[in-house]
Specification:
Length: 275
């Protein structure tokens, strides 16, 4: 098989130049006019393109690594935030249980003296409201004029104030006030009991005086009656004596006139004769 070349083909071929002998800026005019690029220039272009591709690959790898690092950092931040939120939720939940148990202890022991618990809430990271504070109102007034009832109320107030496992300073202040109220009521009760004893003793003395007065009056009446009896007896004795004298005189006159026997006659016989 034969080939035919164009007449100008020979001038289009670049003369052979040993690789690495001529610098890119030192080729001859014919070399510049040739449509074919020198081998040295092609190698440099390849290296450049390879370097650019490598740099692009490196840039892509760097971008991917940065994205991975940022994603990892984001996951770490989210994990730390989640862990922190869980700790906060745990503390809030524990505080909620503690507060509710605390106030419920007040209300249970306080009974009719205590009101319903009221709470102060805080919203947690999970959107749930947790009780972080609370109070129970309780009546601290006694019963006027009834120290025994006041003592019972004061003791119940003190028990209610100290009912939780960890009474607060306010709880202890309420308990101290209840103890003071109880002390005052005890003193009032003691005074009332002393007054009752004194009143009872006074009444006993008055009753004794009245009884003595009655006895004295009865004794005086008895003595008066005895005086009357003695006076009556005396008067009766005088009458009897007078009657006896009159009888004796009568007997004598009867003896003198001889109606009755003489002096030896017995009194009974004279009475019979006179009858």
């Amino acid at each position: 098989m034969s080939f035919s070349f164009p007449t100008n083909f020979g001038s289009a071929v670049t003369p052979f130049s040993p690789l690495g002998k001529l610098a890119v800026g030192e080729e001859n005019v014919e070399s510049k006019a040739s449509p074919l690029k020198p081998v040295e220039e092609l190698a440099e272009t390849a290296r450049t393109e390879s370097r650019v591709a490598s740099e692009r690959t490196n840039d892509l790898n760097i971008t991917t690594n940065e994205q991975d690092q940022r994603a990892a950092q984001k996951r770490d931040v989210e994990a730390r935030q989640l862990e922190q939120d869980q700790r906060i939720i745990g503390r809030l939940a524990a505080r909620d249980r503690e507060v509710r148990a605390h106030e419920q202890a007040h209300a249970s022991v306080g009974g009719q003296l205590a009101g319903s618990p009221s709470y102060e809430f805080q919203r947690g990271p999970d959107g749930v409201s947790y009780a972080v504070g609370g109070e129970v109102s309780i009546s601290t007034s006694g019963v006027p004029g009834d120290p025994e009832a006041t003592i019972a109320i004061a003791q119940q107030i003190r028990r209610a104030a100290l009912a939780p496992a960890d009474p607060s300073s306010q709880d202890r202040a309420v308990a101290a006030g209840a103890a003071s109220l109880e002390t005052q009521a005890i003193a009032q009760l003691a005074q009332m009991q002393r007054d009752e004893v004194l009143e009872s003793q006074k009444e006993d003395v008055e009753r004794e005086l009245e009884a003595k007065a009655e006895r004295d009056e009865l004794e005086q009446e008895r003595l008066a009656e005895e005086d009357v009896d003695r006076q009556v007896d005396s008067e009766n004795g005088a009458v009897l004596d007078e009657v006896e004298e009159e009888r004796v005189d009568l007997i004598r006159r009867l003896q003198e006139i001889g109606v009755v026997p003489g002096e030896n006659t017995e009194p009974g016989e004279l009475l019979n004769l006179s009858a």
